[in-house]
Amino acid sequence: MNFEPYPFERLKELIKSITPKKKVIALTIGEPQFQTPDFIQSELKNHTDELRYYPKSTGEDYLKNAQLNFVKNRFNLQLKSSQIIPTFGTRETLFNFPQYILFDTPSPIMAHPNPFYQIYEGAAIASRAKTIYMNLENSNDFKPILNTEQKKQVHLVILNSPNNPTGATLSLEELKKWVEWSLEYNFILLNDECYCEIYESNPPSSILEASYAIGNKNFKNILALNSISKRSCAPGLRSGFIAGDETILKGYQQYRTYLGCAIPNPLQKASAKAWEDSLECEQIRKKYAKNLQIAKELFPNTKIPPYTFYLWLYVRDDIDFCKKLYQEEGILVLPGTFLGRQGAGKGFVRIALVYEEKIQRLALETISKFLNSYLKGS
Length: 378
Hints:
The protein is α/β, with parallel strands linked by helices. The chain has 13 helices and twelve strands. A seven-stranded mixed β-sheet has the order 2-8-7-6-5-3-4, with helices on both faces.
């Protein structure tokens, strides 16, 4: 297998010879800088004695029930136990699920957004799948598109709504169309919904809601992924789930018994508490929302969707801008070129809005001033 270097490896190489003039702040990775709530940390500490147990690949009932309740409370959907699998975060699932589902498919074809979370590409390579890039551009409001011929050819489509890095989010009506196409052309449709809990006021819809709304109540061909990493500022818990079509999930669960990706019991205990939470996560959401408002205030000419915690900012020359911003101001952002293929993402940088308000505002103010100067001088 021949994998491309991860974006952060490429960034490290890009700046290795640069000595910044100021103290460095990294706005490159979507890692929450807010404190993980105390009750989650306490639950983890209180169950370290369970490290002596082998964790179940299926997950403990208390964790699955907490996730089922989350789906019910958040999306008003009552799933069966057979329609959800707790996972070790979502990255591992995004990587190994395509390998499972496409294994018996001759000449498999995958489609995913471009630019993208690089694990999608890695999964396609590991699955020996041909990739159809759904280019996200200004001209299509950064939303994924397949033509009729591509819909006939593709076996697995990965959506990412709300989207990383653009923030573009598919409406319920748009998601319903994707479900209809999945049934009409018989391809598997997986939506990566890890950013669905980050929004300003109105929460985005799930592909599961869309499926139910059009009468596909058994979620045939439809799957959703979710995680508490952003919702609860707890990426270290590695707690996610895949939910939807129980026929697909039955076989996938059997496959997972061989992977060794079971969540250790103390992490499951803490994760269950996090999935059940409705108070602390709301305070965290408001912090993200405030940062989005600050970004809108400081970049009035940039269209900033009310979802996710990234600013997808046009700077004309993303590589050059990134290097100079780092050297002059000590602020590190991620060039869009590193997140796309075939020119997708070029000219944009991704900026993580993950710090406390005071720090975030200062960093964005600095970027705004630097960008104005940079564009005038280039």
